[in-house]
Amino acid sequence: MALILQIDTATSVCSVALSKDEELLDARESFEKNAHSSLITLFIDELIKENSFTYADLDAVAVSMGPGSFTGLRIGVATAKGICYAVDKPLIAVSTLKAMANGVLHEMKNKTIENTAILCPMIDARRMEVYNALFDRDLHEIREIKAEIIDEHSFEDQLDDNIICFFGDGAEKCKQILTHPNACFLDDVNPLAKFMVPLTYQKFSAGQFEDLAYFEPFYLKDFIAGIPRVKGLR
Hints:
- The longest helix has 18 residues, at 70-87.
- 28% of the residues lie in helices and 26% in strands.
- The strands form two sheets. Strands 3-2-1-4-5 form a five-stranded mixed beta sheet, with helices on both faces.
- It has helices at residues 36-50, 70-87, 96-107, 156-161, 169-172, 197-206; strands spanning 3-8, 14-20, 23-30, 60-64, 91-94, 118-124, 129-135, 141-149, 164-167, 183-186.
- The chain has two domains: 3-95 and 191-206, ATPase, nucleotide binding domain (Nucleotidyltransferase, domain 5, 2-Layer Sandwich); 109-186, Nucleotidyltransferase, domain 5 (2-Layer Sandwich), CATH 3.30.420.
């Protein structure tokens, strides 16, 4: 049995999940913005204790690696690394966008998706830019993850030949732009730790672990600090 803790703080959603092999045991989620640092350890502690485990019982810790929010990713990775160091367990990293695609395929069975549709998870990267990738129904990446400014010509070549399902908080702002008849949109899809479970178990079984000392989140873009706003100063 592989007992694995999953952590996803890549976006505005803070979520954790506990799994046994590919079975989801329990999960916690919060959609409160800017609350990751205050909630993440509380959620994890609740999951461990309320399911009658200890941290030493864990076989691995998995983290959503990005792309996503710089601050959110740092909080999630730092928390995962801290637990791994403390109890000497391996770290697993899962693509945030791939986990979203997995969630749509296997967790959201109430959603109507064409059997041949390509999946395009999107994460808001501010203004009209989104982090996105294209996956087939077997979760093979058929277009690499990229940060892209969306306009009316985006995905034009793919949409001419395929139905593409767009989802995630980045897709919401693209609805008025991507008007191709083969474009469909799924609402209320967020990155959640429970979507990571089967992907995490695959990596655990294959021994695909990260180097604790050198692993960093997949930021995709360079961090640009904003100008501090101090009252009384311009």
